[in-house]
Amino acid sequence: MITKVTDKQLIASAFKALKNSHSPHSKFKVGSALLGKSGKVYLGTNVEFDAYSLTVCAERSSLFNALSNGEKEFTKIAIATSSSRFKFPCGLCRQALVEFNPDLEVILVTRDKKIKHFILKEIIPNYFKL
Ligand code: THU
Known about the structure:
The structure is a single chain. The chain has 3 helices and 5 strands, in the order H-E-E-H-E-H-E-E. It has a 5-stranded mixed beta sheet with strand order 2-1-3-4-5. It has a single domain, classed as Cytidine Deaminase, domain 2, CATH 3.40.140.10. It is an alpha+beta fold. It is globular and about 35 Å long. The longest helix has 12 residues. Bound molecules: tetrahydrodeoxyuridine (THU).
């Protein structure tokens, strides 16, 4: 039986991932929790390198984690940051996620737990598709 993951649980998972942020350069922490159709949650955090351009965002980390575990369909993502203001996912992450589900529900959370909900395609109109 698949037990339904609540928004509250998904947000808690995003903060759990945020705690593992490896961001020695920006000091900006991001945690992502991607919910698969199976009901499983895949965590991801941002990872920075001394060779700066190797940086990977939390959102794509969670996507790679999910794909590496064989999950390909997603319903929701919670993204927590260490900022007191809402931070939207970058263009690369929008494109990567939208290729899997334009109707993905997105929950943004600030460090003081302010919450914003939207649908991914709303923030990436006319996205590239083969
Ligand atoms: N970052 C994310 O994790 N997600 C985004 O959508 C934008 C930026 C990370 C990358 C880098 O480690 C830090 O935030 C500052 O850019």
